Amino acid sequence: MLKVHRDICGYCGCCVSVCKEGALELIDAYLSVEENCTSCGVCAKVCPLGALEVVHEKQV
Questions:
Q1: The CATH number of 2-54 is which of 3.90.1170.50, 3.40.190.10, 2.40.50.140, 3.30.70.20?
Q2: pTM of the predicted protein model
Q3: pLDDT digits (tens, 9 = 90+) for 2-59
Q4: Taking CA 34 as the corner, what is the angle to CA 33 and CA 40, rounded to the nearest 5 degrees?
Q5: Alpha helices in 1-60 (DSSP H)
């Protein structure tokens, strides 16, 4: 699961441009994460502000 830290995000679009699944979309200065996100983490690695975080949910 991809978590967007909206208080840090500068809405630059770097993450959108590297998403191979097309799961990220920048709409009116708001980053939208679609259901087809595979949590690969490429977007988080390229984010210049560190606003994206891949969170793996713990299985109970």
A1: 3.30.70.20
A2: 0.85
A3: 999 999 999 999 999 999 999 999 998 899 999 999 999 999 999 999 999 999 876 5
A4: 75
A5: 14-18, 42-46
